[in-house]
Write a structure and sequence with these properties.
Layout lengths: L1 H21 L2 E2 L2 E2 L3 H11 L12 H16 L3 E2 L5 E3 L8 E7 L10 E7 L4 E6 L2 E4 L2 H21 L5 E7 L7 H12 L4 E7 L14 E3 L7 H9 L4 E2 L2 H5 L8 H8 L3 E5 L21 H20 L10
Parallel strand pairs: 6-9, 6-10, 10-13, 11-12
Antiparallel strand pairs: 1-2, 3-5, 4-5, 5-9, 7-8, 11-13
């Protein structure tokens, strides 16, 4: 009963905040609500969810929460329900998938995938008496970003192309959720144009870095150049750590690249060399910078608008 009541209380709080915060307007346009971000992030990182390990009660509560984000925004399930059951994992595990059709008669046949993984590693070796690996930066932060894109597009409905919003499970088990879904969509001949993935955006790049965020697979397409052109500054930069540790292959963008041969990239703002809580119990809500997250998402909205609404496929792979 404790888990159930906690879940419904959090959903109710999110509904209130979503109405009062995420859908408010700035004088010059839409305003991303830091309060909405904090509400989602705090729920996903709570000890009650016990680190969101796939196949556990904790990640089930996270799945229900994300389904409710779609429901309150009137985002339709892409499949019969929001749940896409993984075929490659031994325990019950689900991607949570919503679909928003584009408003252009021609371009709506092209799909942009916006995703993040919502699982983490669960319970592990205790550090300073804490054995719950809450996964705030990795990847409740990216999951929260996608919920804010859902909030935005559900209200504004400015997307010419269709958007598939994906919350992937079992990323930490070997990209299993995205591998399953990408193969399934490829078999169904979905016309996927671009995949935008969010991972570890909970803290800003350190002072002195000449970028707001980095993108994995920086040289594989012209996406970074286009984003910087759209934003009028060096928004996306090259990060040698991403090359050294092959981060392009380490998140849910990669199965879409391999299945569809399209530009598919992950965005991150966390400097892995200075953030010391990767896969540690210390990756908690209190370590996250929700003001930074709101600012990053706010800046990504007009960029995403241009990507989704360009009259031609401006983003292409490089040779």
């Amino acid at each position: 009963m404790k888990r159930i009541s906690f879940f419904f209380f959090s959903v109710l709080l999110t509904l209130v905040v979503g109405c009062a915060g995420s859908h408010t307007k700035k004088e010059n346009g839409y305003k991303v609500s830091e309060e909405s971000i904090a509400t989602t992030l705090k729920f996903l990182t709570s000890d009650e969810l016990k680190g969101r390990d796939p196949g556990t009660e904790g990640i089930e509560e996270a799945a229900k929460y994300l389904e409710e984000v779609f429901v309150k925004n009137s985002i339709k399930p892409y499949f019969i329900t929001y749940r896409d059951t993984l075929s490659n994992f031994s325990k019950p595990a689900y991607n949570i998938v919503g679909y928003l059709e584009g408003n252009d008669p021609k371009l709506k046949n092209e799909v942009v995938v916006v995703g993040a993984h919502y699982d983490h590693v669960g319970i592990g070796k205790a550090v300073a008496g804490d054995s719950i690996y809450n996964g705030a930066d990795d990847n409740a932060s990216g999951t929260t970003a996608v919920t804010e894109f859902v909030n935005y597009y559900a209200k504004e409905k400015t997307n010419k192309r269709s958007i598939l919003f994906c919350f992937f499970s079992a990323e930490e088990k070997g990209l299993l959720g995205s591998k399953h879904l990408a193969a399934k969509l490829k078999q169904a001949n979905m016309n996927v144009y671009l995949m935008l993935n969010y991972e570890m955006i909970g803290v800003p790049m350190p002072a002195g870095k000449d970028m707001v965020a980095f993108m994995t697979g920086y040289g594989k397409s012209n996406l970074a150049e286009k984003i910087n052109e759209y934003s009028g500054k060096k928004f996306i930069g090259y990060y040698d750590f991403a090359i050294k540790y092959q981060l392009f292959r380490a998140s849910d963008n990669y199965p879409f690249y391999t299945e569809f041969n399209i530009p598919a990239h992950t965005f991150s703002t966390t400097d892995m060399e200075s953030f010391h809580y990767y896969h540690q119990p210390g990756d908690e809500f209190d370590e996250m910078d929700t003001a930074h997250m709101a600012d990053f998402i706010q800046q990504m909205i007009p960029i995403t608008e241009k990507l989704i609404n360009a009259e031609t496929k401006e983003i292409v792979l490089k040779d």
